[in-house]
Design brief:
- The chain has a single domain, classed as Spore Coat Polysaccharide Biosynthesis Protein SpsA, Chain A (Alpha-Beta Complex), CATH 3.90.550.
- The chain is globular, with a radius of gyration of 19 Å.
- The protein is 32% helix and 19% strand.
- It starts with a strand and ends in an 11-residue tail after the last strand.
- Helix 2 packs across helix 4.
- The chain is of the alpha/beta class.
- A hairpin with a 2-residue loop joins strand 7 and strand 8.
């Protein structure tokens, strides 16, 4: 299975981090030069998905999408049925190499397998599928953000390319948000425990690699005033709580459950 790593030319320290990570798990990878939003202002001229409304995607968000598109283009031309895409700030589980060595463990109906965790509550189906070596897979039922690490089929990569040919949206939404087509029509699995996580969530073992995209997003939020929290009126709080209870009942009946996906431990001494 081909493993691709997205890396900016101006981030050699991140490439060194990924070389060390892949070296520890014994897997080869191919570097894909990331699109730099600062060098391609023309990308913002492309229309963005109407579901964002007045919110304007940043140059880095748009460039991130096109960097993933570069990976999808490579995988579409590859003979293998599946390929893996990684961003250059992930930390691998000690057991990652056992799964990335082949794709025989991936269910035949899988379009995408999410390998990372964002350590945020997400919803998965209760039915478990063994993925070997202590890992399991569950259908992902709701949005679980993050495109730090995922496996995509050649067919799904082609669909993702077609869907983003003339419109911009975040890579997270395109791949994992059912509200955005074609994500809603894909069979997406979540690996449990996760195979990797972005370094920003891992404290001292995170190699000091903050998320460049999150930094830009937070700067934009502060500048726009969206970072200021407002107090919800009482009736709005009641409406939200009532909806939450109704959704819980529906999800329970549909064999779905909320969970925070854990990370399979990185190598000791990492």
């Amino acid at each position: 299975m081909k493993c691709l790593v997205i890396n900016l030319d101006r981030s050699p320290e991140r490439l060194a981090h990924m070389r060390a990570g892949f070296g520890r798990i014994g897997i080869a990878f191919e570097r894909v030069v990331a699109i730099d939003g600062y060098s391609h202002p023309e990308l913002k001229q492309q229309a963005q998905h109407p579901m964002y409304g007045a919110r304007q995607l940043s140059s880095s968000e748009i460039a991130c999408l096109h960097s993933h598109r570069a990976c999808w283009s490579i995988l579409v031309q590859d003979e293998a049925r599946y390929g893996a895409v990684f961003e250059d700030d992930v930390v691998f589980s000690a057991n990652a190499g056992r799964l990335l060595a082949d794709s025989d463990w991936i269910p035949a109906d899988a379009d995408i397998v999410k390998l990372e965790t964002f350590f945020k509550k997400t919803m998965i189906h209760r039915m478990r599928i063994s993925a070997r070596h202590g890992f399991s897979m569950y259908r992902l039922c709701r949005f679980h953000p993050g495109t730090g690490g995922y496996i995509v089929s050649r067919r799904a990569a082609r669909d993702l390319l077609d869907a983003t040919e003339k419109v911009n949206l975040t890579a997270d939404d395109m791949v994992f948000n059912p509200a955005f087509s074609p994500s809603g029509g894909k069979m997406i699995y979540q690996l449990v425990p996760a195979l990797c996580a972005q370094a920003q969530f891992l404290g001292s073992i995170g190699a000091g690699l903050p998320s460049l995209l999150d930094q830009e997003r937070e700067t934009a939020r502060v500048a726009s005033g969206l970072a200021i929290k407002r107090r919800r009126p009482f009736f709005e709080k009641m409406r939200v709580e009532t909806r939450r209870i109704v959704e819980w009942v529906v999800d329970h009946c549909r064999l779905r459950r909320y969970t925070i996906v854990a990370l399979d431990p990185p190598e000791a001494g990492r």
